[in-house]
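ESCALATION

Customer reports they have been waiting on this structure for their group meeting. Please prioritize. Original submission:
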Amino acid sequence: QARFLASVGALELKVFFVSAVSFLAMHAWLLSSPTQSHSFGKRLVFWLLVGCLCAGLFYLRGDSHEGNVWLCGYVLELIFSIENVFVFHVIIEAFRCPFAVIQKILAIVICCQVGFQLLFFVGLSRVLLQASFLPYVLGIWLVGVGVQTGLSQHDHFELKDSTVYWALSRVLGDRLLPEYALDGSFVKVKHGSVRMTMLAAVTACLLLVDFLFEVDVTLAKIEEFDYSLLNFTSSAVAAFAVPDLYFVAQRFFKRFTLMRFGICFVLVFYGVLLLVHQFVDPPPIAGLCVVIVVMTLSVLLSWALGYECNDKEKMRESAVGQDTAKFSKRSSKEAGHDDEIGKNVATVPDTPKIVQT
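Update from on-call: job pushed to the front of the queue and completed.
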């Protein structure tokens, strides 16, 4: 903590606050028009340029070493963020999240991730380092998720058959509602009891996974660069690019259907690396190269074997979630049947309902 406070400088604080305000303003605008298609690729390029600009500011300050540390830390965080994107995709697909809900969830997760990063760089990571079992737990979970992703048939997927929903329903019972609220509520009051919506469930799952992954990248950066505030600001700026990185990747996942098996391999690959991290610890760039090769092969095979989805309308509905508008147009009469829906919580539909509150 003392090292972190001693490293506080005016430029570092300006970089963080300007980036944070830009991120919050951008997502506030996106959430105000959730059913419109947005240029995720352009915004991803914007955040990459912001990272380069921030690194340039440190170089211009006259300290090339600090500039190198910041830029390397930024790239390292982006590499680890790609791992997060694969896991986020699997979880969000399992919960059948509508587009408007995904944007809100990712904005919340990234804000919490920046908070995690601050705690870790202040000193919490040193404490978590003593919990040597965490990499093994996360590794086993990743291998299991990867195998299940490869074996599952998404076209005939039912939420009630997923392991995630089964575990949550066992813990929460009838307090778990298989529906999303149009107003973005995490909880709803029905029949005098407070119940958790699917928005709260998927957010909790993503936060848990993000927390565990952030431990890994934070420890890697601390071991490589002992510059606390530089590490934190580079991690935060890189994290702001994750939502757009997710949506860009999702478009590829929807278009090239064999990428599902590429995702399966990547998850198992990262899981195995965590399980054998004491014996094999390849540099992050090596893992990134493996991911690029595997996903490129998946794209080429999808194209060569005819597993490419060229139906732009279908892709738009699937990847961007235009079906959200369909639910938002429910009549007030239909929306008035929430109590009736609440009586049938035990019967979980294929896709969680979106209900007006």
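Sent to customer with the following note: The first helix runs from residue 2 to 6.
Escalation resolved.
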